[in-house]
């Protein structure tokens, strides 16, 4: 059985004259995620953010912004199209749409070029790729420098984000994730989340026959973790971790801790206005890196790492 773990990501910020997105009814959000071929499983809330755990990843809603992540064979661009029509393109202050290369792209209903062609019928923007085509790579589409209602350019200094994508996980935790006896609490305890995020409210779900998703919120801060263990021939295991925490001041080395827990053969870091912090990484080599500054002034950095330890590969019989 194969499941595409790689996420598609949509982030949209509205202009300042719009009513809070959190005032919209539950039906609006269930319809939105249905456009991406997903459904809402559960919800947690605090005074600053609503977090929806989905059948395919996560949705976070703030007063003026949404973040929607979907995996599998989802059609995230349809959700983007629906949202823009619902709120009006004139109220979109900034939009970023992102896709990672898939393990089995032929199973997807669209490709990045198709998605961007559809988005560009509604809103202007620039598309680019980071990473080599013959290795891990990511596609991004960011809107041009749109203006808020006060005539000033939209500032991205408020937004920070770090995405960690881990491939071919190993070790005790990876073995546990393949067991039919795994539980949500078992995974939660092995991840040490109570220690790493002591003030966060969590929502989590175990999928059958394998897979795990988690959302965590604290005020406007969020973390989200999605695990796709390898459950078929070959090693297609994939884990993603994302947060908007300022890691330069956070008391725990979150990225290093995640790499220590999952022991991936390789991993990618994409940082949006975030510093590079590699303390605590295992012995590794940085195979590639690059950066770009968007018209909104957002600094996007990409790094692709590989452990120095040689990985033994076995043939996969098809």
Automatic annotation (TrEMBL):
UniProt xrefs under InterPro entries: AdoMetDC-like, S-AdoMet_deCO2ase_core, S-AdoMet_deCO2ase_CS
Q: Which organism is it from?
A: Shewanella xiamenensis
This chain belongs to the protein called S-adenosylmethionine decarboxylase proenzyme
Superkingdom is: Bacteria
- One Pfam family name is SAM_decarbox
Gene3D superfamilies referenced in this protein's UniProt entry, alphabetically: S-adenosylmethionine decarboxylase
């Amino acid at each position: 059985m194969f499941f595409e773990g790689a996420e598609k990501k949509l982030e949209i910020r509205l202009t300042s004259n719009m009513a809070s997105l959190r005032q919209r009814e539950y039906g609006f959000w269930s319809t939105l995620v249905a456009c991406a071929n997903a459904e809402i499983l559960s919800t947690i809330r605090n005074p600053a953010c609503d977090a929806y755990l989905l059948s395919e990843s996560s949705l976070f809603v703030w007063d003026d912004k949404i973040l929607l992540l979907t995996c599998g064979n989802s059609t995230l661009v349809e959700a983007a199209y629906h949202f823009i029509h619902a709120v009006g393109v004139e109220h979109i202050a900034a939009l970023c749409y992102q896709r990672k290369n898939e393990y089995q792209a032929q199973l997807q209903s669209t490709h990045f070029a198709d998605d961007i062609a559809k988005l560009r019928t509604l809103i202007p923007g620039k598309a680019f790729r980071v990473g080599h085509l013959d290795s891990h790579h990511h596609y991004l589409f960011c809107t041009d420098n749109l203006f808020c209602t006060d005539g000033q350019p939209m500032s991205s200094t408020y937004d920070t984000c770090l995405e960690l994508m881990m491939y071919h996980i190993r070790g005790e935790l990876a073995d546990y994730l393949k067991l039919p006896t795994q539980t949500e609490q078992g995974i939660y305890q092995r991840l040490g989340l109570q220690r790493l995020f002591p003030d966060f409210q969590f929502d989590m779900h175990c999928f059958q026959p394998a897979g795990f998703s988690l959302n965590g919120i604290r005020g406007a801060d969020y973390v989200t973790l999605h695990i796709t263990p390898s459950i078929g021939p070959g090693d297609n295991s994939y884990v993603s971790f994302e947060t908007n925490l300022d890691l330069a001041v956070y008391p725990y080395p979150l990225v290093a801790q995640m790499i220590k827990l999952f022991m991936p053969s390789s991993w990618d870091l994409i940082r949006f206005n975030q510093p590079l912090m590699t303390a605590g990484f295992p012995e590794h080599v940085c195979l590639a890196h690059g950066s770009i500054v968007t018209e909104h002034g957002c600094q996007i950095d990409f790094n692709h790492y590989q452990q120095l330890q040689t990985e033994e590969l076995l043939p996969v019989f098809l």
